[in-house]
Amino acid sequence: MGKVVMYSSVSVDGFVADENDQPGPLFDWLTGGDVPLDESGVLKVSRASYDYTRQYWDEIGVTIAGRRVFDLTDGWDGKPPSGIDHVVVVTHRPAPEGWDPGAPFHFVDGIEAAVAKAQELAGDRVVEIAAGDVGGQALAAGLVDEVRMDVVPVVFGSGRRFFGSVHAQHLLEDPEVVLQGNRVLHLRYRVRR
C-alpha cells in the first residue's frame, strides 16, 4: 500500500487560501520558472522545483479532496488534475446532478472511508490528501504518513488553514527535504507515530 501524503502550497502564516477561498499568489511559483512541469506549457518552474515536484507528481495515484474544493474547481470538468488517475471526494452529499458516472471520481462519506477507497484505487502509489479541513481530519485520525508543503513568501493573515481545524498537537519528524525554488520553499516531513 502506498503512503498517504497531506500536501498543498501554503502561505508563510499557514493558509492555503484567503477568506474568499482564493489562493492569491500561492501558485505563482508554478509559472515563475523556465522548466516546463507538464505538457501544457503553462506550468514552468525552476530546475530545483521541477526535479522535486515532477518526481512526486509521478508517484501520485489518487487525490483526496473535500467537497468545497471539488465545487470550487467545478470538479475539474470530470478530469482529475495533473494526470492523476482518480479523485476521491469527501462529502455528505451525492455527486452533482448530471455528473458523468464514468468519470474517475468517487464520492465518499467520511475521511476513514475516503482513505480506504483511495488506497484501494492507488495500490502502491501515493494517496495525496489536499491540505485544509479534509487533510486536517486525516492527520487527526492518524491516517497521514507524510506532510509536504510548498511554502510561498506571502502572509495572508486569515483564511483557510493548511491543517484545517486541528486543535491537538501532532509531532512531525525533522524535515527530510528543505529545498529552495523560485518564490517557494519545498518542505517534507514524516509524521511521527
From TrEMBL:
GO biological process entries: riboflavin biosynthetic process
Domain Bacterial bifunctional deaminase-reductase C-terminal: 111-178
Pfam families hit by this protein: RibD_C (PF01872)
InterPro entries: DHFR-like_dom_sf (IPR024072), RibDG_C (IPR002734)
One example GO MF annotation: 5-amino-6-(5-phosphoribosylamino)uracil reductase activity
Name of protein: Bacterial bifunctional deaminase-reductase C-terminal domain-containing protein
Species the sequence originates in: Amycolatopsis japonica
